[in-house]
């Protein structure tokens, strides 16, 4: 082989390598760009159907997600876990993509085969408080079915102009003569009877014997003469704000903060006997038309940015389980961080949890839902 | 003078005379007219079947079904009926609903009568038309909104109690009481009762009233013994509609009554809301339907039964 031939071969090899590198680089770039582009392109124009408590379709919450993916988030609202179960069980699979459910309802959704198993690696649980990284109601047979979105405590909401913090240290205040006719009730048996169960020292409050259940029923009936009324969500706010009722057991900050924003002296407290934790969680519905998009929504809602947005929903505010969300809120909305007690450098919502005063709200264990609901109906009719 | 008398005395050649001779109005025996009548009434028949009879049948069937895991199961069980009739709270709610409805109906009828009387006999036609228009305008707005607005007026810190307080009078609990519930009912149907009574009173022959006055009857006696019997149909229908509306309403007992004294409608909501017990709710609804049918037929027999003395001429 002559030297010129060698040079030609070398040039040829170099050219091939050069072209090959360019092609490979272009292909790699195209793949990367193509994958990013495809992510948004795949979902563009789609509609994500979500079933949730009121207020979660707020543009302040879903707007950034809609903009990022070029999609529309359509929300069907319900009030009460039982209503959610009724809706889910009576609509065909594929109607919804995402279901926002209370933690106690997740078990029912799993039993009814209405939600799918999730991959824990898809979600940033490492950013959560340790107590919520493996939240027991979301796991069944070692499999994950829901991701915690937000939570709050239920105790007593009261008018701080008419009652002092000392008055509401205990659920005993419900029987006090000075609140006769001024006790209101959120018209849902689960939290209302749950806090009374705590007052009767039932631990846990929903897994009680039939004898304890009978005691709970008679305790409930004894409050009839103290009762000012039974209210749905909208009436609850108006009844507290117009002082028709002075205190309502079984509710918490989710009512108090909203009324406080409107200038009403309403506060929430967890009495000495303890309080309940309500938890809202996100799941992917079985048969979801857009399961990947649903996963992305859950990832968005549980990200620090999504967590700040969901904590400060106009409908009702809540605490959030993502520590990074706490930090972001302290930077972006410090007043809200103070109001929601989401500060790591001072007493915060996790302290009551750690002190063992908080019990997860669950469905009744030893009695049926119908039995508890009937006890509630009899209380209302008494 | 009855219609039969009028017909029997009709001059020869008039349709009435033909009726007197043949016993049937002209054209009634015409098959073509019968066919047309049947065809045109089929629309109503089909509508009633589709939107009343079939749903009613489904409702009846559902009372024998059961619920498992929040899903309806088409069983054949008497469990719902046994449970319903075995619970005291059902009877309490039933008696309460009947009482509230009867009371609201009576109050609405009593309060509406002076208004409708004045409208029928004492005001100019143009004034009557204006008032009728004003009576209809509340129905332009949502009943729920109107009920909510009463909360502002009736609350302990509301308009009425604020006024009482400013006058040095003790505050009166109004909201979340049966009084507020009745006020809510009146909000729902009081204008309608006035209008129905007005229709009845407008149909009374004024000659009868004049005759009674000429014979020396005082105005009150004339009203009681001439006007009311003659306007019986309108008065009874007004009261009946008021009863029916109140019986089925849930807005006023819930929003203004505070839900403290549940009626049957609230019982239905409670049964469905937390336990999705549609079969039990259907049983309650069926009891309500039967009750209203009994009330309606009784009212119609009172309204169209023997005519009042003034009407027999």
Ordered list of secondary-structure elements with their pairings:
The complex is a heterodimer of chains A (382) and B (313).
Chain A: H1 3-43, E1 47-52, H2 59-69, E2 72-77, H3 81-90, E3 98-102, H4 103-111, H5 130-133, E4 139-140, E5 143-144, E6 147-159, E7 183-186, H6 189-199, H7 210-221, E8 227-231, H8 233-241, E9 247-252, H9 253-261, E10 266-269, E11 275-284, H10 291-301, H11 304-311, H12 323-332, H13 334-339, H14 349-354, E12 358-360, H15 369-381
Parallel strand pairs in A: 1-2, 1-3, 7-8, 11-12
Antiparallel strand pairs in A: 3-11, 4-5, 6-9, 6-10, 6-11
Helix pairs in contact in A: 3-4, 11-12
Chain B: H1 3-8, H2 15-22, H3 31-62, E1 66-68, E2 71-73, H4 79-86, H5 88-121, H6 125-136, H7 143-154, H8 159-166, H9 178-202, H10 206-214, H11 219-230, H12 232-248, H13 251-256, H14 264-275, H15 278-304
Antiparallel strand pairs in B: 1-2
H/E topology pattern of chain A = HEHEHEHHEEEEHHEHEHEEHHHHHEH
With helices defined by DSSP (H or I, 4 residues minimum), what is the helix count of chain A?
15
CATH topology label of chain B: MetI-like fold
- Low-confidence parts of chain B, pLDDT < 50 over ≥5 residues? 1-24, 308-313
């Amino acid at each position: 082989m002559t030297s010129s031939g060698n040079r030609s071969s070398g040039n040829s090899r170099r050219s091939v390598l050069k072209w090959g590198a360019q092609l490979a680089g272009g292909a790699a770039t195209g793949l990367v760009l193509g994958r990013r582009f495809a992510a948004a392109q795949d979902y563009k124009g789609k509609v994500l159907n979500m079933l949730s408590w009121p207020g979660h379709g707020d543009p302040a919450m879903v707007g950034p997600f809609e903009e990022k993916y070029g999609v529309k988030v359509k929300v069907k609202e319900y009030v009460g876990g039982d209503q959610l179960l009724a809706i889910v069980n009576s609509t065909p699979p594929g109607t919804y993509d995402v279901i926002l459910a209370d933690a106690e309802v997740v078990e029912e959704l799993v039993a009814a085969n209405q939600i799918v198993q999730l991959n824990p690696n898809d979600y940033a649980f490492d950013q959560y408080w340790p107590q919520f990284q493996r939240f027991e109601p979301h796991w069944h047979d070692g499999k994950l079915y829901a991701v915690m979105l937000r939570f709050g405590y239920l105790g007593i909401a009261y008018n701080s102009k008419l009652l002092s913090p000392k008055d509401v240290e205990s659920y005993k205040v419900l029987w006090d003569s000075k609140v006769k006719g001024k006790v209101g009730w959120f018209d849902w048996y689960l939290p209302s009877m749950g806090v009374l169960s705590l007052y009767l020292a039932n631990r846990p409050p929903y897994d009680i014997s039939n004898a304890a259940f009978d005691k709970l029923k008679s305790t409930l009936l004894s409050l009839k003469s103290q009762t000012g009324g039974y209210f749905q969500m909208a009436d609850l706010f108006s009844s507290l704000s117009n002082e028709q009722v002075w205190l309502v057991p079984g509710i918490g900050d989710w009512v108090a903060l909203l009324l406080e924003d409107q200038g009403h002296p309403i506060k929430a407290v967890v009495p000495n006997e303890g309080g309940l934790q309500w938890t809202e969680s996100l799941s992917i519905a079985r048969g979801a038309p857009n399961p990947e998009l649903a996963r992305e929504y859950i990832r968005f809602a549980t990200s620090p940015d999504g967590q700040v947005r969901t904590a400060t929903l106009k409908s009702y505010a809540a605490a959030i389980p993502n520590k990074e969300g706490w930090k972001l809120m302290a930077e972006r909305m410090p007043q809200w961080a103070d109001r929601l007690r989401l500060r790591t450098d001072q007493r915060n919502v996790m302290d009551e949890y750690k002190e063992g005063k908080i019990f997860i709200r669950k469905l009744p264990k030893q009695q049926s839902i119908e039995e508890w609901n009937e006890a509630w109906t009899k209380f209302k009719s008494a | 003078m009855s219609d039969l008398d009028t017909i029997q005395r009709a001059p020869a050649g008039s349709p009435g005379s033909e009726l007197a001779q043949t016993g049937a109005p002209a054209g009634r025996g015409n098959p073509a007219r019968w066919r047309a009548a049947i065809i045109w009434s089929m629309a109503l028949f089909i509508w009633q079947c589709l939107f009343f009879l079939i749903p009613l049948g489904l409702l009846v069937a559902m009372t024998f079904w059961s619920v498992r895991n929040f899903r309806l199961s088409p069983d054949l069980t008497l469990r719902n009926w046994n449970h319903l009739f075995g619970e005291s709270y059902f009877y309490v709610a039933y008696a309460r609903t009947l009482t509230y409805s009867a009371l609201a109906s009576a109050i609405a009828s009593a309060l509406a009568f002076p208004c409708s009387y004045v409208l029928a006999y004492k005001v100019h036609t143009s004034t009557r038309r204006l008032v009728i228009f004003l009576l209809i305008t509340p129905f332009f707005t949502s009943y729920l909104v109107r009920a909510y607005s009463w909360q502002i007026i009736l609350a302990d810190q509301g308009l009425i109690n604020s006024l009482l307080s400013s006058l040095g009078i003790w505050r009166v609990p109004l909201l979340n009481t049966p009084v507020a519930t009745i006020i809510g009912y009146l909000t729902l149907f009081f204008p309608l009762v006035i209008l129905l009574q007005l229709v009845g009173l407008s149909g009374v022959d004024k000659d009868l009233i004049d005759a009674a006055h000429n014979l020396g009857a005082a105005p009150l006696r004339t009203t009681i013994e001439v006007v009311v019997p003659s306007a019986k149909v309108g008065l009874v229908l007004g009261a009946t509609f008021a009863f029916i509306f109140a019986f089925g309403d849930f807005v006023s007992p819930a929003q203004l009554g505070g839900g403290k004294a549940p009626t049957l409608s609230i019982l239905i909501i409670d049964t469905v809301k937390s336990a999705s017990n549609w079969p039990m709710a259907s049983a309650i609804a069926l009891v309500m339907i039967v009750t209203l049918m009994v009330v309606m037929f009784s009212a119609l027999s009172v309204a169209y039964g023997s005519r009042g003395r003034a009407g027999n001429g």
